[in-house]
């Protein structure tokens, strides 16, 4: 009986692990645009792709609704949340509000270890942006991961896990717009990241927040100028 109970427990853990893996895969597929905005999420079609059952898929998609990545359509099921100009503007405003506050806290409290994280994160991002500028877009997903790691490093000494978690959630929804529409504005973005690094090393929070405002707003402006959104 003990062995049977142990086996059952192992199967339950394995099932939970499989469900969590599917959740992360679907989430990333939405963020990185493999599942397109407005796409209907048919459970029967998703089941063989993600390797989980209908009930697990329904639970995963329900979890993604409050995250703003999936829309529930009542009896008709689920679809990927659409991308709109108004939501991008709202996410940009929220990201700026949260990241500006965390940035100031982090610049004030950051130590040498924090400086090392910021410099290392910027180095990886700068190298990837150079590749993009040269026309090599094969590392697009890696570019956005490095972009997040750099911004995360800048605020990582803010002293609040809740603030960092909130920032990560908003950033990921904002990131979806950049990935779906591949918003990269070349030398401007590269220069702004370098300037943010310099501000961090000087502990110049006022200039850092000013740069951050232009950096985030630039994504919105590029999307609107290119008429990428309604």
From TrEMBL:
| Ranges where the HTH gntR-type domain occurs | 16-83
Single GO MF descriptor: DNA-binding transcription factor activity
Alphabetically sorted, this entry's keywords are: DNA-binding, Transcription, Transcription regulation
Q: What Pfam families does its record include?
A: FCD, GntR
- Is Protein biosynthesis included in the keywords of this UniProt record? no
**Top-rank taxon:** Bacteria
Q: Which PROSITE patterns match?
A: HTH_GNTR
Report the protein name in the record.
DNA-binding transcriptional regulator, GntR family
**Organism of derivation:** Bosea thiooxidans
